[in-house]
Amino acid sequence: MARFLFTTLFSNDLGLPNRTVPVAGAGKTRGHEVAFCNPEQAPRKLIADADLRNLEFRPRTTPTVLPSSFTQHIWNMDHFYAAYGYQDDDFLRNDFDGIMEIAADYAPDVIVDSWNLAGCLAARAMRKPLVSVIQADMHPSNRGFIWWQEPPDDIPTTVPTVNRLLAEYGLPRIGKTEELHVGDLTLVVGTPETDPLPKGTEATYVGPILWQKAGAKLPDYIVTLSRKKPLIWVYTGTPRYFEPIVTWGDSIVVLRSCIAALAEEEVHVVLTTGYRDLPADPASLPANFHYEAYVPGIAMAERSDLLIHHGGHGACLTGPYTDTPAVIIPTFSERESNARRIAALGAAEVIVPTEDAEAEKHVPVDEVRAKVKQVLSEASFTTNAKRIGQKMRGYGGASEAAGLIENFASRV
After folding, report:
1. Is the link from the previous residue into 244 a cis peptide, with omega within 30 of 0?
2. Residue pLDDT, tens place only, 170-182
3. Contacts for 387 with CB less than 8 Å, ≥ 6 apart
4. Going from the N-terminus, what domains does the chain have, and what CATH number goes with each?
């Protein structure tokens, strides 16, 4: 039996826990000891719902060094971590020290990370084997999140901050933070179609990793909604990360535009926020809207005729995996990259928000309504989703990832 510590980005979202919880659960089923360390509210709920251990994390600080401008155009991991606050030595060090403390006490044989820079750093500092579970845009052999444009020369970066910390532990300097997300074993979530890598890249595809609790069911009223009208699942992601402050990752534009576009349409709408509070009284929603904080995602997607979401990697894979087309409103460039990949495969339409001077995002309501009608009426979107889904389901997902990690642990 091996002991695994799972680390994911400290963010009040469900995307990364949805990716790692099923892998950890499969490892637990195989007889291994698994634990997470995530202090955020929504991930804590998901981890607890999966009956997995979540170790207590120290109080987190607030970054005081941030880029001078905030925008949804995040070019790469260096830029993402700068916008996250890791240009601040103290902020990064607090997260790093916290994971080091947990790892020293828990004594994992292997650290399994998905998008937690401090976790990757801690694994290297402690000379612990690292398994990295990533999407292809995070690999240093790729062009980052905005791969369809040439990057500017002045992208904010956390590399100097990271290199100062690496030097303290006698570790090699890096040129970009993507290098730290290449583990001793690197697993890519998705397929070569959805997450392309240059030929010869040393990484293993495991297909989509999506989580749904065993036996989970949709609320009865959703199951019994009349099939005479299309059912649309609107998943917003996190509407506001720091209400009422506007931040570059907010997805409230999905909520607002869908309410305005679909209120008078002959459709059923199930609106979910992933354990996040709805930034409005649910009673004020249109009559054809039904609000749930959380629903089992695979079951909801399978019941739906159309998904509308914020472009998260897991959401983008859920659509094809369940043969369901999508309209995607990506709320920053990592999500736009995911959305472009699925749209290029013919399984979705994309509406990229614009930003005003206060960084608030906007999309034309008429365009949302038109794209919804287009995807619902043109059979090619569903046909293409089914084609991609058939390929996706040929991979082992969480079970395959757990087996690869188990085999890796037995060799180190």
Report:
1. yes
2. 999 999 999 999 9
3. none
4. 3-208+395-411 (3.40.50.2000), 220-392 (3.40.50.2000)
